[in-house]
Design goal:
- There is one protein chain.
- With about 1450 residues, this protein is mainly α.
- It contains 56 helices and twelve strands.
- The strands form six sheets. The protein has a two-stranded antiparallel ribbon with strand order 1-2. It has a two-stranded antiparallel sheet with strand order 3-4. A two-stranded antiparallel ribbon has the order 5-8.
- β1 and β2 form a beta hairpin.
- α11 (about 220-245) crosses α12, α35 packs across α37 (about 960-990) and α40 crosses α44 (about 1145-1175).
- It is globular.
- The two termini are about 70 Å apart.
Length: about 1450
């Protein structure tokens, strides 16, 4: 990058390399970790039996053995192996098992570790064999030998070695005993001495559990270590056989050298040097093959092998499913307990006596007149409560209804329990209404579902589908609906209360299992309700405590104990502090939130209050002003920079005063100092105020004034407090401090072990004379000439007798410049640098060259343990803590799938694809062509072919560039044709709807502009523009393949979600850059501090820190900033006049920055990528809603949403649900009730307004999963309450519509009865008139007039024909009775009850009317028999019978009356 800066403009180099590092090293590389973790999780599920299930920490002191019992059988009995089995006295055994003895031994181990860490190099002539450290080692070794002998004497040798911990102690005892032998002292046996520190892990139970969790299941981690070692051995052997014959290449001459080279490539440190040396040695012919060999090995080792270690550690940190649910409940209870308690700063008021504010009244209560109230009016409240209690008690199920003694006892116990609860509780109106509604509605729904399920089961049995015949697959919506109905019926005990005598054994067994399931469901409901009630009670208790403190203590909730609670000035300050932009706009009629066009901008404006926005802007302006500060342009001597300082302090003073007056400083519920953010605000303000008031003119190095300037650099951290999402990032960092601290302890322990070993072996042995020709220390004196090389690749031709340029330097016997092992501190610093995999090759080469090749094993073992296990521990713990903070660590598999589904649905968008034109014209043909898969694949191949053109450099002076540019022009015209065809097929408006089409249009437009400029100018800039257009075109191919699209979405969504983490990293980097300018702004140039990399200004400091983030030579920059006299010029007056560094400051500065950024912040990016990768990477079996389901829904939505607005009216949801097929299909014949619930849910949630794409998709997702398994506690309670309300309202609508239809039928029959009576009266009058005026002739044939009348009557409307045709004649009595009987019965047709249709016309001809036998009395009897009042009564009874039948037997059929389908 520095070479590019010298050759090209600065902005181009910075932009290219920073974006390259960000996308490739931070995002794309971490995608491999996500892939390995997800793949490993799947493999782990498949091989769970091989590795065994996870288990908690079990005591190794217990085992199980077979013992014969009294009955002659065998059983497993737990045996304590620590039980005294030796011959020691009881007092010694008791002492050995006591905690005092255990703590004494551990304290001695700690003292031994401290003594070993205090060892240091005392000089060449000092006798190290019999010094005080050797004597202390002998004493400790004897002590621990006596401990081991005592344990063997107390436990017996067999009982002693049965424990793994005792085996490790015995190994240490044997090794350290050999180590104190004089000839073996300070040899390889030193390992046993320093390994005693591992015993200190037993001090902390939390550390012991953590270590067991990581390393306890040793099969996975051990197998991976063996695999890595095997891979290194195999690849070393292959490389040895390939390159051992190459001359001038000494890296692969022997197997140890080949092993070290391949291990170096594995650690990524200097692997390019290994490859370059090999390429130069093999020649140009085999160079490409060798390069591919090393690159593939490097990619596999760094991207896959190291990711496997992260996956194994994450798998070890994973919990069982049952433990996750248990921890969820415990966490909810803990949250309820914490909400119940007030903070300590508020509870301090409870220590003071109560002093409530008294009000002086002029009249006593007895002086007020009380109005008279009737006694009957007061009694009705008491009677109502008693009636409600007795009514609820009568509704309890009796125990005698069960035929099983066990069910009787359980029912009696339940009745007693509920009786006590009812008698103790206060029956509020809400409780009575809920119980009555629940009892009534559940009875109706239970009868309906029971009848429908039985009918379905009977139908399947009759059809033979149980015997293997193929049946239609039910949709997931139907399956989940029936699961919920069955669970609800079990919860209310419907199945357990219907056991009858005539049931078979299978039915009784099924009922017993249903009873057990009912008990489990009831227990689960009680636990959830108990936690919910506990939360509500905790919140209520907290509010009550605050109210009591507010009433009893007059100074409570008073800012600074001065401003009143409801003072006008405080209310004004509250309005100013809490004023913010209202991002959501609601409809005044429906109350629904409107989707505005610029809702993202409105959400950004409403993110914080107006006051916080002002302070964010002021803080940013102040940080920009600090960017212009440098050691040569200081704020103390620059008035223009002081303006920003004054503005910041004034605005922050106003802000803090307003917030303190509104919310209080400390002793108020919403105080400013109520968390760490408030403390940081006050600290930054005080530092800024003190610096502004002091403004020191002279700042000596390492003084208090310089420390104040360093603390002033924390000003950018104010944004962490002002932005809520930034505070969330800080909480995520500090909430996992415990696990990160445990990992740090493990790594420090590892470093201490190897540092102590290195001090005892390498102290004083790494020093060398700076003259390479001098070997012994005695000869290292005087001066020698050192040559100076201008460049490594520059070969200067010297004249005869001319020497190379150089200068004389004194000979010095000294350690290497960057590291040594003379004491534990320097050794741990060197090992910390090695742990970051920077500079370890130099340490290895120095140890091998100056001590011996065998000691190279030391550094290789440490690098392997530190890199493969230590650093991956940081990655795994940070990812686990991130998941735990987001609530995903304790999620079960179903809950995690549900969270992934919700996140995936948020990203899903409607298809922006217009429908195919209706006709078969030109547009329809273009549409078919552009949507054909072959056309899309052809375009993708053309994009790849155009991208291949960039494999050759486009140089204006090269003649090959012109043909390449011409081919690119041809490709551009093809893409123009593609866009034109799509515009014709989809219309311009339809083409513009898709974002992908917009991107293609933009790139194509740029391509056309490039073609014009290319033929017009034909210079280097047009070639560069053409190359950029090809690169932009290449990105369009990612959306044409599912896998590429998945990876692209992972990267894009990860960038979006990690925005605030990246901003937090930049703010932290900015603070360190400001501090670096103050501490190291004038440090002299060294090995890595040069004109490009230095801290002379904030901009250059940012580039240096960004380089350190990547890990590139950060340790060398740190050592350059540690330069001390006599290698620099000190100045005690001011820090900007010296070129010396700061040893302690550099050590804390660089180590803390590297740990926070490289080990924590960057691993948060890995955690986000892993989380987002799981959204898109999931198999069809793991997905609750597959990709095909979402695609099908998008297509159906595209059909219904004809305007492509993303919203549809609520009434169209019914049409959309009917069009769904496959797993989202709703069968109207079987799941009509589910259909009604879904429609009503949309109407209820959106008040009959428009619904969006995500609203319908969210409803379908909730209905397609088992909410009991997939939803968390709070969401589950809210969803169950919503579904219960929906079922209740739908049942009410069903009953209401039944009643309306029944009333309509009754009214219709009443009108029919009235019309019959009226027609009978008219017929009686006609017959009476005929009787009074008899005809002169008897007719046996119908007359023409009667035929004409009948024809006229048949042509009349239906109402008049009913009135006329229902009038009987004397000769048609039987016919009338039969017709009237049929007329009273309701007829059903096509699922609806209808009134009887009009009967066929009855002939009014009278055949042989003999009036002589009739007479008046005969006519009267006939009229009495034909009285229709009895038929009206029968109609009423039939309606009553029909209503009863609808409520009891035919409820499944009457469900059709709810909605007209």
């Amino acid at each position: 990058m520095y070479r590019a800066i010298d050759s090209f403009p600065r902005w181009r180099s910075y932009f290219y390399f920073i974006t390259l590092i960000f996308f490739l090293a931070w995002l794309v590389k971490n995608v491999f970790i996500a892939v390995i973790i997800e793949t490993f999780a799947e493999i782990r599920v498949q091989f769970q039996q091989m590795w065994g299930s996870r288990s908690s920490t079990t005591s190794t002191a217990t085992t199980q053995m077979f013992h014969e019992d009294a009955a002659g059988g065998w059983q497993l009995v737990a045996v304590d192996v620590n039980k005294p089995q030796g011959r020691a006295p009881a007092c010694l055994q008791k002492m050995m098992r006591s905690s005092v003895f255990h703590m004494f031994i551990l304290s001695m181990v700690a003292v031994d570790v401290i003594v070993a860490a205090s060892n240091y190099y005392k000089g060449e002539n000092f006798k190290r064999q019999y010094d005080e450290f050797y004597l202390a080692e002998v004493a400790f070794t004897v002590l621990f030998d006596l401990e081991a002998l005592l344990k063997i004497w107390c436990l017996g040798f067999t009982g002693y070695i049965s424990s793994s911990l005792h085996k490790f102690e015995l190994l240490l005892v044997i090794g350290t005993t050999l180590h104190i032998y004089p000839d073996l002292y300070h040899s390889q046996f030193t390992y046993f001495q320093v390994l005693r520190v591992v015993r200190l892990i037993k001090i902390s139970p939390a550390l012991e559990d953590f270590v067991y969790k990581i390393f306890g299941p040793g099969k996975k981690l051990g197998s991976l270590v063996v695999f890595t070692a095997s891979l290194l051995i195999v690849m070393s052997a292959i490389s040895l056989q390939m390159f051992c014959f190459v001359e001038e290449l000494d890296r692969f001459t022997t197997f140890p050298r080949a092993f070290m080279s391949m291990f170096q490539i594995l650690t990524q440190e200097g692997w390019v040097d290994v490859m370059d040396q090999t390429l130069n040695a093999v020649g140009h012919m085999w160079a490409p093959v060798v390069a591919i060999y090393f690159i593939l090995y490097h990619l596999f080792a760094t991207l896959i092998l190291l990711s496997l270690f992260v996956a194994v550690i994450l798998d070890n940190l994973e919990l069982d499913e049952d433990l996750k649910k248990l921890k969820q409940l415990k966490q909810s209870e803990a949250n309820a307990d914490t909400k119940e308690k007030l903070p300590l700063r508020l509870r301090i008021f409870e220590k003071f006596p109560n002093r409530p504010q008294m009000v002086k009244i002029s009249k006593l209560p007895s002086d007020f007149t009380v109005p008279k109230i009737r006694e009957s009016f007061m009694k009705q409240f008491i009677d109502r409560q008693q009636q409600d209690t007795s009514c609820l008690l009568r509704r309890l199920p009796s125990a005698s209804s069960s035929s099983c003694d066990h069910s009787k006892r359980s029912a009696i116990e339940e009745n007693k329990y509920i009786d006590q609860k009812l008698r103790k509780s206060v029956f509020s109106i809400r409780a009575r209404n809920l119980l009555e509604k629940e009892t009534a509605i559940n009875k109706i729904l239970r009868e309906k579902e029971g009848t429908s399920v039985k009918a379905c089961t009977r139908q399947r049995m009759l059809s033979g589908s149980f015997e293997g015949q193929p049946a239609k697959e039910r949709s997931i919506l139907s399956v989940q609906h029936h699961i919920r109905q069955e669970r609800r019926s079990l919860r209310h005990g419907s199945n357990s209360q219907r056991i009858s005598r005539g049931k078979s054994l299978e039915t009784l067994t099924q009922d017993h299992s249903n009873t057990v399931r009912y008990r489990n469901a009831q227990r689960e409901d009680s636990e959830i309700k108990m936690i919910q009630e506990k939360k509500e009670q905790a919140e209520m208790k907290r509010k009550v405590q605050e109210e009591e403190l507010r009433e009893n203590h007059p100074y409570f909730d008073k800012p600074l104990f001065i401003v009143g609670r409801e003072h006008r000035f405080r209310n004004f300050c509250r309005v100013v502090v809490r004023a913010r932009f209202n991002a959501s706009k609601t409809d005044p009629v429906t109350g629904a939130v409107k989707n505005t066009k610029y809702h993202q901008l409105y959400d950004l404006l409403g993110l914080v209050t107006y006051l916080d926005w002002v302070m964010i802007i002021v803080t940013i302006c102040s940080c920009i002003s600090m960017m212009f500060e440098s050691p040569f342009r200081r704020v103390m001597h620059a008035p223009t920079l002081q303006i920003a300082e004054y503005v910041f302090v004034i605005f922050m003073s106003i802000e803090l005063n307003l917030k303190i007056m509104a919310d209080g400083l400390f002793f108020t519920p919403t105080a400013v100092i109520r968390d760490f953010g408030g403390v940081m605000d006050i600290f930054i303000y005080l530092v800024s105020l003190i610096f502004l008031c002091w403004m020191p003119q002279n700042v000596p190095a390492k003084s208090g004034a310089q420390l104040l300037m360093v603390l002033r650099c924390l000003r950018p951290l104010r944004i962490f407090k002002l932005v809520p999402q930034m505070r969330k990032v800080v909480r995520e960092l500090f909430s996992g401090f415990k696990e990160i601290f445990l990992v740090s302890i493990l790594l420090l322990t590892l470093m201490l072990v190897f540092a102590s070993f290195g001090v005892q072996l390498f102290a004083g042995k790494l020093a060398k004379c700076n003259d390479p020709h001098i070997i012994s220390r005695e000869d290292c004196h005087g001066i020698f000439r050192i040559n100076v090389s201008v460049s490594k690749n520059l070969n200067l031709k010297l004249r005869p007798g001319e020497k190379k340029p150089g200068f004389w330097v004194p000979r010095v016997w000294a350690n290497p410049r960057n590291f040594n092992f003379d004491n534990v501190g320097n050794a741990m610093l060197a090992l910390f640098e090695v742990l970051s995999l920077k500079g370890w090759v130099e340490v290895r080469d120095v140890i091998i060259h100056r001590v011996g090749p065998i000691h190279g094993i030391y550094i290789h073992v440490f690098v392997f343990l530190g890199c493969m296990i230590g650093l991956t521990l940081f990655v795994g713990v940070v990812i686990a803590n991130f998941n735990e903070n987001k609530g995903t660590a304790l999620l079960t598999v179903d809950q995690r799938r549900w969270e992934d589904l919700k996140s995936r649905l948020k990203i899903a968008q409607p298809l922006h694809l217009p429908p195919r034109p209706d006709n078969d014209g030109f547009r329809a043909k273009m549409y078919d062509i552009t949507q054909h898969p072959f056309f899309k694949r052809t375009i993708a191949v053309l994009v790849l072919a155009q991208s291949v053109l960039l494999s050759v450099k486009w140089d204006a002076a090269d003649p090959v560039t012109v043909p390449l540019a011409t081919m690119s022009v041809v490709f551009t015209f093809i893409f123009v044709l593609e866009v034109t065809m799509k515009i014709i097929a989809m219309s311009p408006s339809g083409f513009w709807q898709s974002r992908r089409n917009r991107y293609d249009l933009l790139v194509t437009s740029l391509g056309v502009i490039w073609v014009i400029l290319h033929f017009a100018l034909l210079n280097a800039y047009t070639y560069m523009m053409g190359a950029c257009v090809i690169v932009f075109r290449f990105f369009s191919i990612c959306g044409k393949h599912v896998t590429l699209k998945m990876l692209l979405l992972t990267v894009v969504v990860s960038m979006y979600k990690s925005f605030f983490i990246i901003v937090g990293m930049f703010l932290l980097l900015l603070c360190y850059a400001f501090a670096g300018v103050v501490l190291f702004g004038t440090v002299k140039y060294g090995e890595n501090i040069n004109r490009h990399a230095n801290f002379s200004s904030a901009g250059k400091a940012i580039t240096v820190l960004f380089r350190i983030v990547t890990g590139e030579d950060w340790n060398k920059i740190m050592h350059d900033c540690m330069v001390q006299p006599p290698f620099c010029t000190p100045d005690n007056s001011t820090y900007w006049k010296t070129d010396c560094g700061n040893y302690a400051g550099a050590l804390m500065y660089f180590c803390s920055f590297y740990v926070i950024i490289a080990y924590i912040m960057l691993n948060l990016l890995v955690a986000i990528i892993v989380e987002n990768f799981s959204l898109f990477y999931s198999t069809e079996e793991d997905q609750l809603l597959s990709y095909n389901d979402l695609r099908h829904f998008q297509i159906i939505w595209n059909m219904v949403d004809d305007k492509r607005e993303g919203v549809i009216p609520t009434f169209r949801v019914k049409f959309l649900l009917r069009l769904l097929r496959g797993r989202l299909e709703v069968d109207l014949d079987k799941d009509k009730l589910l259909f009604k619930h879904m429609c009503y849910e949309m109407e209820r949630l959106h008040n009959g307004g428009d619904v969006t794409f995500h609203d319908v998709l969210s409803m379908l997702s909730y209905r397609s999963v088992d909410i009991r398994k997939s939803l968390q506690l709070e969401e589950l309670l809210a969803r169950e309450q919503l579904e219960y309300t929906i079922e209740e309202e739908v049942a009410k609508q069903t009953i209401r519509m039944w009643l309306k239809k029944c009333l309509k039928r009754i009214r219709a029959k009443q009108q029919q009865s009235c019309s019959i009576i009226h027609s009978l009266r008219e017929s009686q009058q006609q017959e009476l008139s005929r009787f009074l005026n008899p005809p002169s002739i008897e007719t046996t044939q119908p007359s023409e007039d009667m035929n004409a009348i009948n024809q006229d009557n048949s042509a009349q409307p239906e109402t008049s024909s009913q009135q006329q045709l229902l009038s009987p004649t004397l000769s048609d009595r039987g016919g009338y009775r039969q017709d009237s009987a049929d007329a009273g019965k309701p007829q059903r047709k096509f699922g609806q009850w209808r009134l009887p249709s009009a009967p066929k016309p009855i002939s009014h001809s009278v055949s042989s009317v003999n009036l002589r036998f009739g007479g008046r009395s005969t006519m009267k009897s006939v009229v009495c028999k034909m009285n229709p009042m009895s038929d009206a009564a029968s109609c009423g009874s039939e309606v009553k019978k029909w209503w009863t039948r609808q409520l009891t037997v035919e409820s499944d059929e009457s469900g059709e009356d709810l909605l007209d389908i």
